[in-house]
Each structure stands twice: as C-alpha cells, then as structure tokens.
Amino acid sequence: MKIEKRNIILIFFALGILLNSLMVYAHGEETFAQAEELIKQRIDCNNLTTDQLEIIGEYYMEQMHPGELHEIMDRMMGGEGSESLKQAHINMGNSFYCGEHQFLSSNMMNIMMSRNNQFRGGMMNMMGYGTSYGLYSGAWMILWWIIGTALIAFIFGIIFWWTYNLIVKNNRRSK
Prior knowledge:
The chain is mainly α. The chain has two domains: 2-102, no CATH class; 138-175. It contains six helices and no strands. Helix 1 (2-41) crosses helix 2 (50-64) and helix 2 crosses helix 4 (83-96).
C-alpha cells in the first residue's frame, strides 16, 4: 500500500515537472513566433519598441545558441528577468535586425577587461589587470618566485656537481 502511494506521488510529481517544462517551452515558442512575425513584417527600427527589439534579439540569440546553450548564455548575462539580460537582447536586436553594428559595446569591453565589479575576472584578468587575482600577482607571484628560485638553484647545483666530478676525475688521473 505504501509503495503504491509513493509511486502515485512520483507520477504526479513527474507530470508536474513535464507540464511546467511544456508551459515554458510554449511561452518560448510564442515569443519566437512573435519575433518571426515582426521580422517578416520588416518594420522600420524607429517604429519598434524596446520590448519588440528584446523579443527579436532573443530570437536571434536562440538561432545562434539553440536550447540549453541559450539558457547557459542567459544565466551568464544576469539570468532570466535581469536588466543586463534584457539590455543584451535589445542590443542583439539592434545589431542583427537594425544593422547597428558596434564591435564591442563599452559595457562588453568593461566586462572583458575586468572594469566591472560584478565580474571579478574577465579576459584580461589572467595578467592581473584591474584586480589582484591575476596569474602574475599576489600569491601567484610568490609561487612563481619560489619556482624560479628553485629552478635556478637546481641548474646551479647541476653545474656545481658536474665541475666537482670533473675536478675529482682530473685529480685521480694525475696521481
């Protein structure tokens, strides 16, 4: 009897998850259908609202990064409902639909160059640019100094050992 109740609860739980994912999928499909309709209508960019540009940008992002990749990219840009993700979708809409191409927006450059406190890292962080967590700063610099000193000592030891053996050999021959 207990096993049957547990199985029924698991089935309802699984159905709930399935229905939830179908509703999210349907919402995404509805949004993409709106975007496709807007693109087909060839509406001038000056007549589009920011919400419409966001829908178009999200559509283009889905085309470039389908399914799970899109979800991962959304999380990396602030997560669902965040202002940064909304702005990223609007910028994509402007870029791909309206042809307003900028190599990298100032916000993207700030993120990549670690000039944004939200992201402690970025492309330039490896060299320690902007933060103290780079590869050549802080504790890493001490580690590299120790490794360098050990390497120099090792090389010096090999040279010393080699010359010592050479001198000992020459002394044995001369006797």
